[in-house]
Amino acid sequence: MSLYDITKRLMDIIGSICGIILFSPLLIGGALWVKLVSPEGPVFADIKDRVGKDKRPFKMFKLRSMVVNGYDFLKDNYPELHKKYMENSYKLSADEDPRLLKGAKIIRKLSIDEMPQFFNVLLGTMSIVGPRAYYFYEIEEQLQKYPEAAPYLEEALKVKPGITGLWQVSGRSNVGFMDRVKLDAKYAKTKSIWFDILLILKTPFAVLSGKGAL
């Protein structure tokens, strides 16, 4: 392992432990909120595997902010919104998405639903800083639309996905797929601890602004 890899892993271990301790009230409060507003479902979102470093699959921990079986719920009850969702790269704004639980907009805007990912970092499947983790089906379908994105994706998947990163502080869902993969590839090529620290420092401002949050 290089000095960069060792330093980054040490930062991840220390940062994830500090994050779990620091945000434990929000983590516990968020879990209780899920069970209060949606007692019939699990606390964590039952989501498909994400794509990790070198295309290895992993389970991302995330608090559930939608109804159980949200995709089928949208497809069966809101066909027009489902069509829009599919055409808009699997995105709906919080104001129009009927799947969201009560209070989910605040949970998502402040990224409280993402905080369980500190456990992913501690386990080594994610990093504090890195590209946002992709879905396997997302990559397959988006590459059909944007085949020119392939070399950028190859570069981006050479590093671990992160809780925060260049895309996450650059507008999140306001950034289209091609721009996203270019940002991710740029981050993967940079490989700098100082760049990681800069992105960490930018993260609170990005979260509080709520820019690009769905």
UniProtKB/TrEMBL annotation:
InterPro entries: Bact_transf
Residue intervals passing through the bilayer: 12-34
Keywords noted in UniProt: Cell membrane, Membrane, Transferase, Transmembrane, Transmembrane helix
Gene Ontology cellular-component terms listed: plasma membrane
NAD is among the record's keywords: no
Compartment(s) where it occurs, according to its Swiss-Prot or TrEMBL record: Cell membrane
First-listed, main subcellular location of the protein, grouped into a coarse class: membrane
An MF annotation (GO) of this entry: phosphotransferase activity, for other substituted phosphate groups
Residues annotated as domain Bacterial sugar transferase: 8-208
Family the entry assigns: Belongs to the bacterial sugar transferase family.
Protein name: Bacterial sugar transferase domain-containing protein
